[in-house]
Amino acid sequence: MKTKVYLMSAMIVAMGGGPALPQETGAIPIYNQAYQENYVADQLADILTDASNAYVLLDPFSDTETVDWAGAVTALKASGNQVGAYISVGTGEDWRTDFAALQPHLVTTPWDQWAGEYFINSTTNGALDIMKARIDRIAAWGFDWVEFDNMDWVYDDDYRSTYGFGATIADGETYFNALCDYVHQQGMRCMAKNMTEGAENFDGVLYESYSDDLGWWDQAGGVAFAAAGKLVIINHYDEGNCAAVYDSYRAIYGGNLSFICEDSRLRRYLHFGN
Fold it and tell me: How far is the first Cα of the chain from the last one, in angstroms, to the nearest whole number?
């Protein structure tokens, strides 16, 4: 699902005729319990101890039997944190409790990159209401944000050919914007994932970055979000020099960029920011 836009050319664009970058340093630390690429995600117990005035991403549907999510969110917010909830809006995952309800709206062949995960086939016959039910629970737990993973599935023609989903780009944009509108109605904010196209009403964006594929996304969209004062986060994976990558991205997005990095030597996330 990657559109190649490499770091150096994007840096030239950002320093040239694009939107003016904010000069102040408003970056905040980022914690991520919801996912990681190679090593280990942040653990909730550590986040509760360490996170302060940060953006904290949790997966509240991963362990609902043993975690008091409302209590955890309350404790995190007491330390000045903004708390986000992860959901995949472009796929169904067979380990979720609502998978049986979502399954009729999914393709039948699992995604070969992620076992047990199936792309949304149609957005117009029930998937929207199932996602809204998740958002209702997230709001009841007291979260501030909802992060929309896999919202870009409809843009990948190779995946469409391989897996046969019927949703069009227009369908996908209507769907994720309807979900973001619903999040706003619940008093929360929307975090886009890996794209801003068609998502101008979202309140922030998180990009997943790779040591062998820096800046693969549409850089102009992230620059525009940063210039508008929206929360822009880069989650960078498997890196031996996290600080250098952070500096290179700040040259594009300015001092308000928030950054978390999977350190290949420490084999865990490093948290940057004030």
Answer: 32
Helix ranges restricted to H, 16-126:
44-50, 69-78, 99-102
Say if residue 56's pLDDT is above 90.
Answer: yes
Written as six digits, the tokens of 213 are: 């594929």
Residue corresponding to tokens 């008093």: 187
pLDDT at 66: 84
Strand order in the sheet with 145-149: 30-32, 55-58, 82-88, 145-149, 189-193, 204-210, 231-239, 258-263, 268-271
pTM of the model: 0.90
Q: How many residues does the chain have?
A: 274
Contacts (Cβ under 8 Å, ≥6 apart) of 48: 72, 75, 76
- Among residues 209, 215, 273, the alpha carbon closest in space to that of 238 is found at 209
In sequence order, the 6+-apart residues with CB closer than 8 A to the CB of 200 are none
What sections of 51-201 are H helices per DSSP? Answer: 69-78, 99-102, 127-141, 157-163, 169-185
- What one-letter code names the amino acid at 226? A
Structure tokens at 205: 């964006």
Asked whether 21 and 14 are in contact (CB, 8 A), the reply is yes
Q: What is the number of other CB atoms lying within 10 angstroms of the CB of residue 135?
A: 20
* Cα gap 174→72, rounded to integer Å: 33
Q: Which run of H or E residues covers position 87?
A: strand 82-88
